[in-house]
Structure formats: structure tokens, C-alpha cells
Amino acid sequence: MHIRLATQDDVPALVAFNQGIARETENRELDTDTLTQGVSRFVSQDRYGFYTVAEIDGQIAGSLMTYEWSDWRNGVIWWIQSVYVDANHRRKGIYTALYENVRRWAAEAGDVSAFRLYVEKDNQVAQKTYQRLGMEETYYRIYEADSP
Fold this sequence. Notes:
alpha+beta, 6-stranded mixed sheet, 36% helix, Aminopeptidase, 26% strand
């Protein structure tokens, strides 16, 4: 397995993964053009954060993205977002490898104060994975509204 930062060449795979996330978690189809533009913009402008991908035999098997500035901490919180592992590669340690690599990069960066992620309330498998890696449930709830 090879962990690396995503490039523009990875956009089609990342778009497909995000479509998979939307289908599996919200039974929702995302607009492919908007999603492609959003992923491409994110990959090309590192001020927004970064995608990390896991490759196996030259194929992208999993991905995650991250970043948030915290004025309260005067540092960065890396949100673990858009986590996806291809169905053929699940339960093989790919997320763990991605997460551990990102933690290593955070230690090198020196200004990362925390890691956060959100998970579906009923996704017990994912929750157990996050707990096993040392993450704890917080007291925050997430609220959301689409822009008018």
C-alpha cells in the first residue's frame, strides 16, 4: 500500500468515491459536474486542505480529506472528511493506514491541534474503528442548512 497526496490525476477516482459516500450514507446522487469542479478545485488549492489517497497495485483503494483553522486554539484542526474505501478493499487496514499517515504529517507540520470527524449515528463499524484509533465522541452535534 502506498499513501500519498492526491493530484489532479486522481480527481475521477475521488469523484467516484464521493458519489459512493453520498449513495451509501444519504441515498443521494450528487451532481457530477459540480462535484468534479469541487474536487478539482480542492486538490489544486492547498489553502482549503488536502486529499490523501491509498494506492494498491496502482489503483486508488481509499481516500480522506482534511483541514480547518481554529482561532480558539491558534492552530489547525484536521477534519477527517470524505473518507471512502473501495468496497473490494474494506476491512484491510486502509483507513488505519491513511489516518496514521495523516497523523504523522500533522506531527511534522507542528501546528495541528486536533483531529475531528463526523460519522453516521448508526455506523457502529466505523465508530469502533475510530475508537480503536484513540478518538472519542465529543459533545457537539452538527447542524446544517443548504445555502439559499
